[in-house]
Design goal:
Blueprint: E1 2-7, E2 11-16, E3 28-33, H1 35-45, E4 50-57, H2 60-71, E5 79-82, E6 89-94, E7 100-105, H3 116-120, E8 127-133, H4 135-139, H5 142-156, E9 160-164, H6 174-184, E10 190-194, H7 195-202, H8 207-216, E11 221-225, E12 231-234, E13 241-243, H9 257-271, H10 275-289, H11 302-308
Parallel strand pairs: 1-4, 1-8, 2-6, 4-5, 8-9, 9-10, 10-11
Antiparallel strand pairs: 2-3, 6-7, 11-12, 12-13
Helix pairs in contact: 1-9, 7-8, 9-10
Bound molecules: 2-keto-3-deoxygluconate (KDG).
Length: 317
């Protein structure tokens, strides 16, 4: 049995060693990234049984990603190396404040070989949570219907569905994103949205109104990520709960913080924790991601979160 399974692209992520415009970055570190990949790694580091459905190129970079995911303990039964495809690339640009921007060289994606049959035969049937993000459906229109099929398989087998809208305007228009993401919402149990993405979906409204919009589709649990303002959440029968942000030790690279929050939040859901504790834990995980260069290198182990929260003594030497 898996706790969480997700589907998406894996990318070789070239992280610049210096900050500033990409055109002046001469040195990079080769890492692995991709929103759904990060989530699978984040869940595994917290000790959850996590799985990743994907395709990589049958090349050196594809082998690297596969090795990386195996090393992290992610179930890669549903990952295949595809002949005739290059493993996608993402060159990151990191600005002075640690915020990042992506420069993709990712099409055609090897994940375009994924079919309905792939999903039928995948480990979706064995997972407690099926997690989808807005990145995979943005890659090509066919992925929207694939995700609907994945949701049906997951639901038939009793899984909860979790969604992060993760809207990447470099990959699709806000109109296409809205159409696809709103079509998923009636089937979603847990939404993990950035504040900006809630506004892209529902227009500029208050935080509470955004939460209400999500719940009007029948979403049971909503979490809204608010950066330095922390996070807020609501379950069907509680008032909105607010959790303040956790100050990062330093801000090195903010890309992947949202994926870290999601891994932490879903961990709390699987432990049946109260919403406030779940939000605090998720904020803590997100804040640890930004202190380390790379999309997922900063994702903490469970005991590191406990130490950071002061629940476990840290023994340095
Ligand atoms: O959430 C982090 C991702 O944005 C990053 O790993 C790569 O942009 C990315 C993507 O498309 O998944």
């Amino acid at each position: 049995m898996l706790d969480i399974i997700t589907i998406g692209d894996g990318m070789i992520t070239m992280n610049p060693k210096t900050r500033g415009p990409l055109r002046f970055s001469n040195e990079f570190e080769r890492k692995a990234g991709g929103a759904e990949l990060n989530l699978a790694v984040g869940a595994a580091r917290l000790g959850l049984a996590s799985g990743w459905i994907s395709r990589v190129g049958n090349d050196e970079f594809g082998q690297y990603i596969l090795n990386f995911m195996r090393g992290e303990g992610v179930d890669v039964t549903d990952v295949v190396k595809e002949d005739g495809y290059n493993t996608p690339l993402n060159f990151k640009e990191i600005r002075e404040d640690g915020s990042g921007s992506t420069h993709y060289y990712r099409f055609p994606s090897p994940t375009e070989t994924i079919t309905a049959e792939t999903l039928q035969n995948s480990k979706i049937k064995e997972a407690k949570i099926f997690y989808l993000s807005g990145v995979f459906p943005s890659l090509r229109p066919e992925n929207v219907s694939l995700l609907h099929q994945a949701i049906s398989i997951a639901k038939e087998n009793g899984a909860k569905i979790a969604l992060d809208p993760n809207i990447r305007l470099k990959l699709w228009s806000v109109e296409s994103a809205r159409e696809a993401l709103l079509s998923f919402l009636p089937h979603v149990d847990i939404v993990l949205s950035g504040e900006e993405e809630a506004a892209q979906l529902f227009g500029d409204q208050t935080l509470e109104a955004h939460i209400q919009e999500f719940q009007s589709y029948g979403v049971e649990t909503v979490a809204v990520k608010r950066g330095e303002k922390g996070a807020a959440g609501k379950t069907a029968d509680e008032e909105v709960v607010y959790a303040s942000s956790v100050k990062a030790a330093k801000v090195v690279d903010t890309v992947g913080a949202g994926d870290g929050f999601n891994a932490g939040f879903l961990y709390g859901i699987l432990q049946d924790w109260p919403l406030e504790k779940t939000l605090q834990f998720a904020n803590q995980v997100g804040s640890m991601v930004v202190a380390v260069s790379g999309d997922n290198e900063g994702l903490p182990l469970l005991e590191e979160v406990a130490e950071a929260l002061g629940e476990k003594e840290k023994i340095e030497r």
